[in-house]
Amino acid sequence: MRTGDSDERISSLLQVPRRTLEFLIDKIRDILTQVFVPMHIGINSLTRTELISHGLTIPKGLYGHNNAIVICDGTYIYINKSANYSFQKQTYSLHKYRNLLKPFLIVACDGYIVDCYGPYKATTSDSVIMNNLFRDENCPLRLYFRPNDTFILDRGFRDSITLLEQCGYKPCMPETLLQGHRQLTTAQANRSRCVTICRWVVEVVNGYFKRDFKLLRQEYFHRALPRMMDNFRIAAALINKFGVRLQDNEYAIEMLNIINERLHFANNLANMVDTTNMNRRSANFNNITAEADNIFFPRLEYKELILFAVGTYQIRQAHSYYGEHVRFHGRYVIEVCSESINSSEFNLRGNNTTLIRGKIRSRHISRRQYYVYVLIENNRSGREGIVEYCCSCLVGRRTVGCCAHTMTIVWYLGWARHENNISAPAEFLDSIFIRDDSDNEE
């Protein structure tokens, strides 16, 4: 499992007949499956009190201290094409454009694997898997989990929300866009951020399987598929037994306080931008090249960036967005509003403010750009000097944290321009391609 080598190669290295090696491996696998795995994975190996103890500060603060909180998701094991046409159709994923099987994970907030199920067909959605696991009121999972237990899910579980609510559980899922809208509302965006700040754990655990066991990250051998799920459960038990649990961020308590404080904040700046149709106005903004001293912006410590974003993901993305922004403009260009802002009309926070606008190109679609607005209070230091902000992207109206586009402006103006040797990431890749005329025009 560690090396991903075939039985033929291992038997050659160990100088034993392949049939003998396969017999020994099957014997060891059976022992591990019967003795080791039940001790370290499964709802029978973990009491509810122990499960609750695997919670972290932020999930507990958002969803309750006395109830179980778990994160569910499916992962993928890639396989080869098959001459069995029925099997080939059932294992081909139109999402990944590859043949695969789907194990399903239930994970605690600190990365402890509660249980794993499967394998399921590639055509089986996460919501169908969840419904199958919880449909029977006498099934083990229904007897284990209790009312008010929280399930943190992604949007692929939207068709299982009704069943979970009927069972008395609290399913939490990122919000979906309302029909006819281009952005989530502020309340929707904030609730979505509360989910994603907890849900990343299951993605980390999925990565553990692929990182530690090469057999599970390469295309699985067809001959070994009948025992694939046994191997997967053994890997899960090894991770539980010998792996390191995820810990709270060092600023977790401060981040939780910020979330609770800003969860119900209205985004007044976004309302003003929409009301005045500011995205289509250019005469009221002056272009400025953002050097170290030619514009006031509160200087931030790196800790303040983390607290402003309520996490680190947006900060990592900001560096790459910065590289794209600099390549597009040649220098770091922003716009400053030249007209005075009527704060009282739109209930904007702060006094003696300056409105800054930036245009950030999409990382996915080259010709799409997002408008970022940041309202700063002049001569006020720290992140308290940033009184309002919004973006035209899907989640740009959130007041709990910010999107990566907003963080790009804040990261550069508040921190990066004061640092030495800040450059676009992986610049050496820009010279890989032979450029054509369309690239030069762009």
Automatic annotation (TrEMBL):
<dbReference type="GO" id="GO:0008270">
    <property type="term" value="F:zinc ion binding"/>
</dbReference>
<keyword id="KW-0479">Metal-binding</keyword>
<feature type="domain" description="SWIM-type">
    <location>
        <begin position="370"/>
        <end position="414"/>
    </location>
</feature>
<dbReference type="InterPro" id="IPR007527">
    <property type="entry name" value="Znf_SWIM"/>
</dbReference>
<dbReference type="Pfam" id="PF13359">
    <property type="entry name" value="DDE_Tnp_4"/>
</dbReference>
<protein>
    <recommendedName>
        <fullName>SWIM-type domain-containing protein</fullName>
    </recommendedName>
</protein>
<keyword id="KW-0863">Zinc-finger</keyword>
<dbReference type="InterPro" id="IPR027806">
    <property type="entry name" value="HARBI1_dom"/>
</dbReference>
<keyword id="KW-0862">Zinc</keyword>
